[in-house]
Amino acid sequence: EKDIHPEAPMRIPDGYRYVSPEENLELICKSMLADASVDEVKLFLKAGTTYKLGTQTEIPKALYIMGQTPGEGEEPAYMEMGNMIIEAFHFENLKIKVTTSDFFKFKNQAFHVSTISWKNCEISDLGRTMWYQEVDAPRKQVVDNIVIEDCRFVGLNSNKSGMFGLSTKQDAPVHNFVFKNSTFHANNLTKALITGLGSMTGELNVTIENCTFVSMAPAAMTFFDLNPKNTSSFHLVVRNNLFSGVCEAGQGTWFTTRNVTSKTFENNYRTNGFVVANWGVDAAEIPVETTLPMETLFKDVAGRDFTITDKNSEVYTNGIGDPHWIK
Length: 327
Prior knowledge:
Oligomer: single chain
Largest sheet: 18 strands, parallel
Number of strands: 26
Number of helices: 3
Mean pLDDT: 90
């Protein structure tokens, strides 16, 4: 006897161009980007197959790449890519391998993007950062929304630049950050997951909800560096998250904040024994300690499997952290 996993039915969303595994994704993408008759590029990839996007040095129109929802026992579509300069962006149902140090890398390009989003994606071992900016004039680069939902980021390396590091020299704002139902596992967090907000103006909203965070290096560890000087408003929501990792006495920062208009910290937990030197919040807002430590609460930390092993744990019964690991 053997298990048979039939392929998921191929339902191509309206407006998307299906790219078969035999076709060259990079050439198709470049051709559609150069085609004046195409307003936005929408590409659909087959689950369980591998594609190469290459390095797209200039993307003057919206780009949407969606993978087929995997069937039982099937892997998502896997895509290798270099860094990008992009006008608008949505990736969904993909495993992504970034072959350069940065996912996005900007140098003085002018753009105003409504939404940049990742949904149900997995990005492993990113060399440096998701967002690197150099800009030579205020508000030359503006993003309204960055949204991460149902994603797993593992093996992050934020020792030289934050995962999302805004320009510290010019006003180049991201007005809304949403991290939801996702995992952020970092080899180090020296420069934080969000940082560089000191020069931005306008409104700022940060929502972090039902996420799992695991930091594996305690030295100079900072989760969130949210210190805007000139924003008109700053609303912060941190709810139902799980924090864990390797820690040492006198090391680490959870949050740094400034100019907060309103804040909500609710139902956040930390694995037993996980501490930082500076929580940066009121005593009542510090995450609640779980009964179990990281090594026994998670199935396999070294293997990056953060499945909750104890169905009687606070994390499991209260639905804390990334739902992906509550099975």
